[in-house]
Design goal:
Layout lengths: L1 E5 L8 E5 L9 E11 L1 H8 L16 E8 L11 E4 L13 E5 L4 E2 L6 H5 L2 H14 L7 E4 L7 H10 L3 E6 L4 H7 L3 E4 L5 H8 L5 E6 L4 H5 L4 E9 L11 H4 L3 E4 L6 H12 L7 E6 L3 H9 L8 E5 L12
Parallel strand pairs: 8-9, 8-11, 9-10, 11-12, 12-13, 14-15
Antiparallel strand pairs: 1-2, 3-4, 3-6, 3-15, 4-5, 5-7
């Protein structure tokens, strides 16, 4: 099978298209023909060597799969060949999704929502699971609460807006002015141009000085530290950003705030919950750019570049038909 191999940590040119042995499913495992995958910040962080101690080289990386079951190992009962599936491979524990085939444990695989194409499905597994973990499992966002989603036009943020809205929250988000209508189309109630307005001042004005109940941080750094200024008393901050520098969170003490840091954990249950929202028409990933498997380096370069103007996710069509919605949709 063809795969994009990472032989050395470095820039987007570090990938090499190669022919490697097709994996064989063992007991409890499923062999999937990958139709699509996608690019996340985690992907270029791994490529750069940020997690070098956890990624032995050479490596096949990648953290999203949408595809079709080709074979199952002994003991598998949930899937049969021909099933359309989606999942996030085990992170830092085996080959990733930048390949024509992938093997995964039955327990982390879900049935792909028929409403989504493979490109859309692959764009949602990691970010959707992360958002579910953050908003539902960690901070327990409740009906009637308010939430600030930083970076609402991005790959994670545009999903967080939709999930928060589906949970009954009032949603604030920071975007560029060019993305106002996009953010509103996702369900955002208040959009803030972070290039022209201080988001803390905007939040306090819109909430009569009360602040929001939850901040969902996709930026990190100073944004994480300042988010406490936009919080209500007993507010919660949930961040998905790896913190490289010490943060001064002193403002959070006066709010009795709680902080949560999320690194997603795979399981089928979260995928099934996302499928329910999709079936209800409450969640749809936005694919902002599509590349082929051989052009993964270019896809990394696009996502990694600042001010790239992207909305939603960068997807990879491993199979030429990946853009098609399932026949039974």
């Amino acid at each position: 099978m063809k795969a994009m191999i990472l032989n050395a940590f470095g820039g987007p040119e570090s990938f090499e298209l190669a022919e490697v042995p097709k994996p064989v499913p063992q007991a409890g495992q499923v062999l999937v023909r990958v139709h699509a995958t996608s690019i996340n910040p985690l992907d270029y962080q791994v490529r750069r060597g940020d997690y070098a101690d956890l990624v032995p080289l050479p490596a096949i990386t990648g953290h999203d799969v949408s595809g079709v079951v080709e074979a199952v190992g002994p003991g598998v009962t949930s899937f049969v060949p021909g099933d359309e599936v989606w999942y996030t491979p085990q992170i830092f524990d085996g080959p990733g999704s930048y390949a024509e085939y992938h093997v995964a444990a039955e327990s982390i695989i879900g049935k792909k929502p028929p409403e989504l194409s493979h490109l859309e499905a692959a764009s949602l597994t990691l970010v959707g699971g992360t958002v579910w973990e953050a908003l539902v499992v960690r901070v327990g966002l409740r009906v009637g609460e308010s939430i600030l989603v930083h970076g609402g036009a991005g790959g994670v943020g545009h999903v967080a807006i939709q999930v928060a809205k589906a949970m009954g929250a009032r949603v604030f988000t920071t975007v560029r002015e060019a993305n106002f209508e996009f953010a509103r189309s996702l369900g955002a109630d208040v959009v803030i141009d972070y290039e022209k307005e201080d988001y803390v001042e905007a939040i306090l004005r819109e909430t009569n000085g009360h602040g929001v109940d939850v901040v969902f941080d996709t930026i990190g750094g100073n944004t994480l530290a300042r988010s406490a200024d936009a919080l209500a008393q007993l507010g919660r901050v949930v961040s998905i950003v790896d913190i490289a520098q010490p943060q001064n969170l002193i403002e959070a003490w006066g709010k009795n705030a709680s902080y949560h840091f999320v690194f997603t954990r795979q399981n089928r249950g979260k995928l099934d919950e996302l499928s329910t929202l999709i079936a209800r028409g409450q969640l749809r990933p936005h694919v902002g750019a599509v590349y082929s498997l051989a052009d993964i380096g270019a896809a990394h370069a696009l996502l990694e570049s600042p001010n790239n103007g992207l909305r939603g996710k960068v997807a990879i069509a491993v199979e030429p038909q990946a853009h098609l919605v399932s026949a039974n949709a």
